[in-house]
Amino acid sequence: MNRELKRLIDDASRVVVFTGAGISTESGIPDFRSPGGLWTKMAPIDFNDFLRSAELRREAWRRKFEIDKTVQGAEPNKGHMAIAKLVDMGVIAHVITQNIDNLHQNSGVPPSKIIELHGNGTYAKCLDCGLRHELEEVRAIFEETDESPECRSCGGIVKSATISFGQAMPEEEMARAQDATLACDLFIAIGSSLQVYPAAGFPILAKRNGAQLVILNREPTELDRIADLVIHDEIGPTLAPIAMLN
């Protein structure tokens, strides 16, 4: 057990956890931004290009369903379960996440406690009216017609409920994340390279507001220099003993 991390958690009155791709790689989900990852081999489709081109919308859905084959069946790991237990115990107030895999929800964290900065890849939404579309329904239409599906309610463009390159960050979630960050006295960044902004600005905001900052990541980050505690280790094995998981 990392005793210093446990001490900081025990001493804190309001803890916020911020998670990135590193926590989900322990569930077998690849980090697409890392060297050799998908985005280094294939340029992401910009949001504006997705809007203007039916061909690129088809390509985006083709990639989406191919990626889903890679992540299908992924289960929450000890890191997710430890966070869920600490939320249930009232230790962690909010989980801010860059991940789109729904594993925090699957681990038992109430959706009201989760702030998804980059959306959620387990369903789709109409960009015009906001209606939710299940992926099974979208996949069936795509496979039958080879066309990007339209909203069954308003006929608008349907897109995975994630934030694409060039797409504006979700205002409500960004505001919730800022409020949670400013209200905490301990901010724990877990499994994030802390290079993708504006999301990576929240640890800085927490530190400037007087909170203690912990960074738990396998590799060094640019923010290690301002953190109160830096742990370069595996996430699940680090957090499980603190949450007293069996």
Sheet with most strands: strand arrangement: 3-2-1-7-8-9
Main sheet characteristics: 6 strands, parallel
Rg computed from alpha carbons, rounded to a whole number of angstroms = 19 Å
Helix percentage: 25-40%
Number of strands: 9
Range of strand content: 15-25%
Number of helices: 11
Envelope shape: elongated
Structural class assignment: alpha/beta
Average pLDDT score:
93
Q: What are the secondary-structure elements, in order, as H or E? A: HEHHHHHEHEEEHEHEHEEH
Low-confidence stretches: 36-40
Measured between the Cα atoms of the first and last residue, the distance is 13 Å
Molecular structure report:
The protein is of the alpha/beta class. Helices cover 39% and strands 17% of the residues. It has helices at 3-11, 21-25, 38-41, 47-52, 54-71, 78-88, 103-106, 135-145, 171-183, 201-208, 235-242; strands at 15-19, 92-97, 114-116, 119-126, 132-134, 158-162, 186-190, 212-216, 229-231. It has a six-stranded parallel sheet, with helices on both faces. A three-stranded antiparallel sheet has the order 5-4-6. A hairpin with a 5-residue loop joins strand 4 (119-126) and strand 5. The longest helix is centred in the N-terminal third of the chain and has 18 residues, at 54-71. The radius of gyration is 19 Å and the shape is elongated. The two termini are 13 Å apart.
